[in-house]
Amino acid sequence: MHAFDLYTLQALNRLVGVSRPLDDWIIYLSNAHLFKMTPMLLVLCGFWFMRPKDNATNRHIILAGLTGCFVAMALARVLSKILPFRVRPLHSPEWGLQLPASMPRYTLDGWSSLPSDHAALSFALVTVLFFLSRRWGLWALFHAFVFICLPRAYLSLHFPSDLLAGALVGTMAVGITMRLAINSRWTHFLLEMETSRPAVFYTGFVFLISQMMHMFDDLRQGLHLLLTLLHA
Description:
Blueprint: H1 2-13, H2 20-31, H3 38-48, H4 52-82, H5 117-132, H6 134-154, H7 160-181, H8 185-196, H9 198-213, H10 217-230
């Protein structure tokens, strides 16, 4: 993967600094939750509230898929801790990569690059949408590549192989969870709760969706600080 990473990053890096507005826009995209997971999650919500004849199947898929998304994020964080620490490209002077003028080089310092949790969650959502609709799945694939993964490679936040590894984690996590959880006791239990205790169900549902929109940032940063404290 070293040659692939080097070629891809250097090709993208030739564009850095050519246009300050372009650089600033890509930095904005990399940070703006509105353009990352939110569009795909809004589509999932649309499928949740579709007309009754499609509702039961869609809801089983969505509940199993969201479970898989949570598993994907958890697995990505665990792998980042147990795998050998990988320095991010922007922190690797030997690569000679240029950063946008408005981007500090200490960005994400101390966070391992492998695997990409952005890629893990975005491709987990892509996989869920493919289970619901091939057309929406293809749109989600385009969205994840252009609005989530490409900016992170452009800004040297990740090696391309980090993004591929994250995408594999997300896709496999949802694929396996779908096989185990669709029409399982777990999804039936949640759907029964949605009917019998909607206030409890939708409170949890909205909380989970909001956390996914923000990439579980508060939880991830809190866990990172806790682990840093424990290893101090």
